[in-house]
Automatic annotation (TrEMBL):
MF terms in GO: glucosamine-6-phosphate deaminase activity; identical protein binding
Superkingdom assignment: Bacteria
This protein's record includes keyword Nuclease: no
Positions of the Glucosamine/galactosamine-6-phosphate isomerase domain: 13-226
Name of this chain's protein: Glucosamine-6-phosphate deaminase
GO biological process entries: carbohydrate metabolic process; glucosamine catabolic process; N-acetylglucosamine catabolic process; N-acetylneuraminate catabolic process
Documented EC number(s): 3.5.99.6
Top-level enzyme category: hydrolase
């Protein structure tokens, strides 16, 4: 069953997720971490940096794998997800940039980029923990509604809704690329554990569909219900449409084994 944790604010959710991930690093210093982009995980990465310093956790062996990348942006583009992760993840945590693997959005090699990225994951033993956000239409990574639940890393066409949501990072909405390369849902589900974060009322409907709705390609994030070790950490706004909200809060507050990873 998917673990659902509801806290009072995005900052509290990010701090809790940071503790969960750092507890895994304590156990396995060379943790292979799947990293997400967008506004949601920025606070998580900052909290990881603060807590790692506070508790003396060495992140020097950490390896990171991005969920996705735009197709066709110029190398070094400030709108690329590689640039985003270098700024908000690598620099914040003080990591070696070479620890980050990003699927290539180079048009010249795009035909083989998905297979190349899948091999990079496989060759290092697979992803231990995958960080996820969720789109307002239920997408994870760039797996838009209709994506196969068994899909692998491949090129996808972005919906207008997703391009509009990402328009804030570009000077003009029409500059948002139409295509991306994204880990597939099948790829994501092979990670040994999943940690999904969602904040705010605008994500509430998608979260409810992902956590309590039927497992369906219409809501790609619903595939997390198939995973044996998925944790969803929400603020109260994102949790507001959950029918079993009281149950989730009760279980979290009364099952100390769920909190065995808290840092001390």
């Amino acid at each position: 069953m998917t673990e659902v944790v509801v806290v009072d604010s995005p900052d509290s959710a990010s701090a809790l997720a940071a503790e969960l991930i750092l507890s895994k690093v304590r156990t396995k210093p060379a943790l292979r971490l799947g990293v997400a982009t967008g506004a949601t995980p920025v606070s998580l990465y900052r909290q990881m940096a603060v807590l790692a310093k506070q508790f003396g956790i060495d992140l020097g062996e950490l390896q990171a794998y991005a969920l996705d990348e735009y197709v066709g942006l110029e190398p070094g583009s400030p709108q690329s997800f590689r640039h985003f992760l270098e700024e908000h993840f690598i620099e914040v945590l003080g990591l070696d940039p070479n620890c980050l693997v990003v699927p290539s959005g180079d048009v010249a090699t795009i035909a083989t980029a998905g297979d190349h990225f899948e091999k990079a994951i496989l060759d290092t033993g697979g992803i231990d923990c995958q960080i996820l956000g969720i789109g307002s239409n239920g997408h994870i990574g760039f797996n838009e509604p209709g994506s196969s639940l068994g899909s692998r890393t491949r090129v996808k066409t972005l919906t207008e809704n997703t391009r509009r949501d990402n328009g804030a990072y570009f000077s003009q909405p029409e500059d948002v690329p139409v295509h991306c390369i994204s880990q597939g849902i099948g790829t994501i589900l092979e990670a040994r554990s999943l940690v999904m974060l969602a904040f705010g009322d605008k994500k509430a409907e998608a979260v409810a569909s992902a956590v309590e709705g039927p497992i369906s390609a219409s809501c790609p994030a619903s595939a997390i219900q198939l995973h044996p070790h998925a944790t969803v950490i929400l603020d109260e706004g994102a949790a507001s449409r959950l029918e079993q909200l009281r149950y989730y809060k009760f279980v979290w507050e009364n099952k100390p084994d769920w909190q065995s990873w808290r840092l001390s």
